[in-house]
Amino acid sequence: MKSSKKLWLFIALLLVGITNINAQTKRENLSDEQKEKIEKNIEEYTTSLRLTAIQKPEFETITRKYAKQMKAVRDSGGGKFKKYRKLKSIRKNKDKEMKQLLHPEQFKTYLEKQEERKQQMSARWSKR
Q1: What is the pLDDT of residue 22?
Q2: 29-41 pLDDT tens trace
Q3: Confidence category of residue 55, pLDDT binned at 50, 70, 90
Q4: What is the residue-averaged pLDDT of the chain?
Q5: CA 55, CA 107: separation in Å to the nearest integer?
Q6: Cα dihedral angle (50, 35, 71, 48), rounded to 10 degrees?
Q7: Separation between Cα atoms, residue 119 and residue 96, nearest integer Å
Q8: Angle made by CA atoms 83, 78, 84, in degrees to the nearest 5
Q9: Burial, 23: exposed, middle or buried (Cβ in 10 Å; 0-12, 13-18, 19+)?
Q10: What are the tens digits of pLDDT across the range 62-118?
Q11: 4: number of CA atoms within 13 Å, CB side?
């Protein structure tokens, strides 16, 4: 009797774990549209920052890593302010990595491009 209860408990916990892993994986996976947008942004940055052959793969890795983290936060539950704080923290960490990767002039250009994007997003939100 005890062993059958343990077996059912184990199965229930296993199913809950699998469900959570599956939901997390779906949140972290980027859609084709998002992947396309990231590729476009990477190419745009490669040109405007004049990334070297050594910098480009690392830039792509950092960009994709943080895009997945941001998507997970956007898709998660919780309030807007909580999400905003998490996204801001993610951007801060991304900027830290980019600062280590890029030369000072490139990083300055990177920050300027980020500010441009921020203003474009604000303009789009104000039109809604």
Answers
A1: 42
A2: 778 887 888 888 8
A3: very high
A4: 82
A5: 12
A6: 10
A7: 21
A8: 10
A9: exposed
A10: 999 999 999 999 888 888 889 889 999 999 999 999 999 999 999 999 999 999 988
A11: 1
Interatomic CA distance for residues 109 and 96, integer angstroms: 15
| AA identity, residue 117 | R
Say which amino acid occupies 75. D
d(CA 71, CA 52): 28
Parse the chain into domains and list their residue ranges: 1-30, 31-127
8 Å CB contact between 67 and 38:
yes
Mean pLDDT of the region 2-21 = 58
Q: Which amino acid is at 94?
A: K
Rounded distance between C-alpha atoms, residue 115 and residue 110, angstroms? 9
CA angle, 122 as apex, 118 and 124 as ends, to 5°? 115
Tokens of 18: 């699998």
Reported pTM: 0.69
**What is residue 29's DSSP assignment?**
S
What amino acid occupies position 96? K
DSSP letter for 128, please: -
CA gap 82, 85 in Å, rounded: 5
